[in-house]
Design goal:
The chain has 434 residues and is of the alpha/beta class. The protein has helices at 76-85, 104-117, 140-146, 161-172, 185-188, 197-202, 210-226, 238-250, 260-264, 268-272, 288-300, 315-318, 335-344, 351-365; strands at 3-13, 18-27, 30-35, 45-48, 53-56, 58-63, 88-93, 121-124, 151-152, 178-180, 193-194, 206-207, 229-232, 253-258, 305-306, 381-391, 410-420, 423-427, 430-431. Helix 2 (104-117) runs parallel beside helix 3, helix 4 crosses helix 7 (210-226) and helix 7 (210-226) runs parallel beside helix 8. The mean pLDDT is 98. The structure holds N-carbamoyl-L-aspartate and zinc ion (2 copies). Its EC number is 3.5.2.3.
């Protein structure tokens, strides 16, 4: 196991009440010592973190790794490479693969594959229903035993309230969170962007905000009734934020995530980017009032975590007319830059809040010990460079797919290094595979 000395960084871990400039020594995958002027042991790799922020490792709870079955979009190696390049020490992967991850052997397969080929930690989720068809419940208990950290039918909603209620009752036996893609298909129909002024002007079929909100409200009511933990995935509308705030006030065990694209862009991007299909995703980019409500929800704690919904697609699935294009955009390699540039720099949130949103609370959501900057803790560390100004370039991306609306954007603030279980996996935005 390697030895790593991170020198002179600002160690910032609000959950452990750490905020000091110090050295941090990693030995054998754990934080061995924190102090000033620590000597570098023989053979230790040294990272100069002067002027940088050393944070507990960031975790993304919403990632599509596309394994098994769609390795032409992404695979275990490229998806986790994109994660570490983006500053993440771990990802939660979605089960909408081919086949759908709806049984214990498939969960075990992913755990094993991640151990062999992954560059970061990978926590699989299992489907709520068999084949994510919304009919029969999957073997939730067995998937939990095999290592599933949550259940979700992401990519598809759970149509029937009764099915969702049964899933919640079952999952709560294991204290497993039920993550839900909230969408009423009878309302979203064949829409391809947010329903509003812009969709009317462009003549594209819209997806009303109510399509999401109806399921958010339903889930909160069912969580109140069953006592289960429900997590609202990729929340996009202002009333969804209101509903989560209301649910929390009533004592529901509800958590929510928002994506960088929903706190950065609006439906106007569809017009401004000349119908670029990299503005097409589920749920769609909504209006400025929605974006503002998401910023408020992030700032006041209504929204618990920032997650990317990294959804790689092949160019052939995106380079088609807008209504025909696949839903989804990549996000792992731009999330930290966008969060620093759009949330922390303008003062929407503090750096401490960002660390809670991207490290501590994501770990708590999936019932894992949060990464911490304390002696003896596992060395899962993200180092941030708040001053670096950089341009997002497709050719530098580690992901197999390049379907990002942020290509060409210039951001200030970047992930500087990623340490996973004591191993340096990224430095200065370059992936270190071995
Ligand atoms: N977000 C998306 O637009 N697409 C996701 C599915 C999903 O997250 O619902 C995908 O798997 O491509
Ligand atoms: Zn979804
Ligand atoms: Zn998703």
């Amino acid at each position: 196991m390697s030895t790593l000395l991170i020198r002179n960084g600002r160690l910032l871990d609000p959950a452990s009440r750490v905020d000091r400039v110090a050295d941090l020594l990693v030995v054998g995958g754990r934080i061995r010592a924190i102090g000033t002027d620590l000597p570098a042991p023989e053979g230790a790799a040294v990272i100069d973190a002067t002027g940088k922020v050393v944070a507990p490792g960031f975790i993304d709870v919403h990632v599509h790794l596309r394994v098994p079955g769609q390795e032409y979009k992404e695979d275990m190696r490229t998806g986790t490479a994109a994660a570490v390049r983006g500053g993440f020490v771990g990802v939660v992967c979605m089960p909408n693969t081919r086949p759908v991850v709806d049984s214990a052997p498939l969960v075990s397969y992913l755990v094993d594959l991640a151990a062999r080929e992954g560059l970061c930690r990978v926590w699989p989720t299992g489907a709520i229903t068999k084949g994510s068809k919304g009919e029969e419940l999957a073997e939730i208990g067995e998937m939990y035993e095999a290592g599933a950290c949550a259940i979700t039918d992401d990519g598809r909603p759970v149509d029937r309230a009764e099915t969702m209620r049964q899933a919640m009752i079952y999952a709560s036996q294991f204290d497993l969170p039920v993550m839900d893609h909230c969408e009423d298909k009878s309302l979203s129909g064949s829409g391809c962007m947010h329903e509003g002024r812009v969709s009317s002007a462009l003549g594209l079929k819209g997806i009303p905000s109510a399509s999401e909100e109806v399921h958010v409200a339903r889930n909160i009511l069912l969580a109140l009734e069953t006592g289960a933990r429900v997590h609202i995935q990729h929340l996009s509308s202002r009333r969804s934020v209101d509903l989560v705030r209301w649910g929390k006030a009533l004592g529901a065990r509800v958590t929510a995530e928002a994506t960088p694209h929903h706190f950065t862009l609006t439906d106007q991007a569809v017009a401004d980017m000349a119908y670029s299909t990299n503005t097409k995703m589920n749920p769609p980019l909504r209006e400025e009032a929605d974006r503002q409500a998401i910023l408020e929800g992030i700032a006041d704690g209504t929204i618990d975590v920032i997650a990317t919904d990294h959804a790689p697609h092949h160019i052939d699935e995106k380079d088609v007319e807008y209504p025909l294009a696949a839903f989804g955009i990549t996000g792992l390699e731009t999330a930290v830059g966008l969060a620093l540039d759009r949330l922390v720099r303008p003062g929407v949130i503090s750096l401490e809040q960002l660390i809670l949103l991207m490290s501590t609370r994501p770990a708590q959501l999936i019932r894992r010990t949060p990464p911490a900057l304390t002696e003896g803790a596992e060395a899962d560390i993200t180092i941030l460079d708040l001053d670096r100004t950089w341009t997002v370039r497709a050719e530098e991306m580690a992901s197999k797919s390049k379907n990002s609306p942020f290509i060409g954007w210039t951001l200030t603030g970047a992930p500087h290094a990623t340490v996973v279980g004591g191993r340096l996996r990224m430095l200065e935005m370059k992936v270190i595979a071995e």
